[in-house]
Amino acid sequence: MAKAEKPVQETASLQLLTETERLKRDIYRPDMEKLQLFTQMLRRNALLKKAVIRHK
Q: What are the angstrom distances between the C-alpha of 25 and each of 4, 10, 14, 19, 51?
């Protein structure tokens, strides 16, 4: 039996969390998840620093 999909509106609202809401949610994450989020943030930052943006 197929899983019922979430309504589009509910899924879209999850992606538009404010900074405060996101921080409140992240406070209660386990330490290992917090570490993974932190290292992911560092990797993204390093990647964006190397990015070359060219305007046409």
A: 25, 17, 12, 10, 30
3-state class of 20 per DSSP? helix
DSSP-derived 3-state class of residue 18: coil
Question: Measured at the alpha carbon of residue 20, what is the angle toward residues 16 and 26, in degrees to the nearest 5?
Answer: 90
Would you say the pTM of this structure is higher than 0.85?
no
pLDDT value of residue 16: 74
- CA dist., res. 23 & res. 38, Å (int): 13
φ, ψ of residue 37 in degrees (nearest 5)? -65, -40
Residue 17 contacts by C-beta under 8 Å, 6 or more apart in sequence? 25
